[in-house]
Amino acid sequence: MKRSTILVVVARFLIPLIMLFALYVQFHGEYSPGGGFQAGVLFAAAWILFVFIYGLETGLRVIPTRVIYALASLGVLLYAFIGLLGVVMGGRFLDFYPLLESPHAAQQAGIILVEFGVGITVATVVMLIFLMFAQRRAMTDAAERNE
Amino acid sequence: MLLLLLVVALAVLFTRDLLKATLLFAIYSLTIAALFAVLDAGDVALTEAAVGAGISTILILAVLALVPRHEKRLFGHNIPALIIVFITGAALVYASFDLPVFGDPNNPVHVHVGQYYTQNTYADMGVPNMVAAVLASYRSIDTMGEAVVILTAGIGVFALLSVPVRRRRQSSTTRASEEDSSS
User: What is the domain range of residue A33?
Assistant: First the structure.
C-alpha cells in the first residue's frame, strides 16, 4: 500500500484527539449529549483509523484479539454486576440508590458505571466486526494466491 | 434540508455503483444528524453522526472490499414482490390516519411517563442530561438488553466470518475481481 505523508501526519494528529473526545463523551455524558454508546463508537473509530494508517498487525499489537473478546464480554458483565450489587446492598436489580449514602451521588455513580460498561462493549464489538471483515479479506487473498 | 434528504435518497436508489451509494448514505446520515441538532436532540444527533455517517460507512466499505463493487442488473419485474410492497405501503398509509395530531398536548407521548421524567429527573438524581438519566437509570434494564444485543451481533459476525474460506467462495471472488477490473 502506498504511504501518503499527509494522511499519516493528519491521522497521527487526529487519533489522540478522537480518543480524548471519546473519553469526554463517555464521562461527561450526564451533563452534555453523549454516553457509553457514542463514546464506544468514537473510540473504535480512532482504532480503525490507526489500523488504516499502520496496518492491521500493528493495530492488533495495541489491542490483541483475545483482549477484544474479553473486554466485549466484560462490558456487559460490568453492567450486570452493578445491577446485582444493588440487589446485594438491599435494593432491586439495577436500583442505584443503595450504592452510596447520598441518593444523587449513588444515581450518578450507577449511571457512570453502567455507561462505562456499555462503552467498553460497543467499542470492542465494533473493533471485532471491523477486524472480522479485514481478516476475511486477507483470508480470501491468501486463498487466491495459493490457487 | 428535507429536500436535500429527498434528493440524496433518490440518488442512492438510482445509482448502481455500491461505493457511490455508500458515500451518499454517509451524506444522508450527516444531513439528518444536522437536522436532529437543529431540533435540539443532541444525543440523537451525536449518535447519528458517529454511527450512521462514521462507523456504518466504514463497515460497509469493509464489506465492499469482499464483494463486487457494482450491483447486478436485473431484468423484468418481480410481480409478487411488487404486490407485497404495494400491500405493505397501503397498510402503512392506512395506519398513518390513526397517528395523533402533531403538536397536540394530549398526545400519549406528553401525558404518559414523559411528564414525570421532565419534572422529576433533576430532583431524583441531580443529572442535567435527561436522556442519560432515562437511558441509564429509569430504563436501565432496556439498556442492558441493548448491550447484550450488541454483544450478540458481534458474536454473530464472528461466527459467520471466522470459518475458513471455502472453494466455491474463492471462485466467486475471483470472478468478482475480474468484473471489477474490466468495468
Answer: 5-146
